[in-house]
Amino acid sequence: MKKTKIVIIENEVDLAESISDFLSIKGFEATIYLDGESAIEMIQTKLDDEIPDIIICDLMMHGMDGYQVLETLKGIKRFEYIPILNLT
C-alpha cells in the first residue's frame, strides 16, 4: 500500500523532527525542509508520483515565509490542489 507523502516545512529543527517522528509512527512518509526556498526547489523537481499529498508549513520563517510558500505553490498548476496546513 502506498504511504501518504507529507512535506514538513519548519525552520525549528526540533519541532520539525517531532512532527516527522509522530507522522512516521502513524504510517506516513514525512520529509523535512528547513526553509521555504529549498522546499519549493525540491518539490518542483519531483516526478508526479513523488509529489507530496499534504504540506505542513510554518508561517513564521526567515527568508520566504509560509504565506509566500503558499502563494508560490498555489501558482504552479501541478501543485494547486495539494492541501497545505499552516502552523504558527
Give the gist of this structure.
This protein is α/β, with parallel strands linked by helices and 88 residues long. 35% of the residues lie in helices and 22% in strands.
Please characterize this protein's 3D structure.
With 88 residues, this protein is of the alpha/beta class. The longest helix is centred in the first third of the chain and has 13 residues, at 13-25. The mean pLDDT is 93. The chain has a 4-stranded parallel sheet with strand order 2-1-3-4, with helices on both faces. The protein has helices spanning 13-25, 36-44, 66-74; strands at 5-9, 29-33, 54-58, 84-87. It has 3 helices and 4 strands.
> Regarding quaternary structure, how should these chains be classified?
single chain
**Largest sheet, spatial ordering of strands:** 2-1-3-4
Largest sheet: 4 strands, parallel
SSE order in H/E notation? EHEHEHE
Q: State the helix count.
A: 3
Residue share in helix: 25-40%
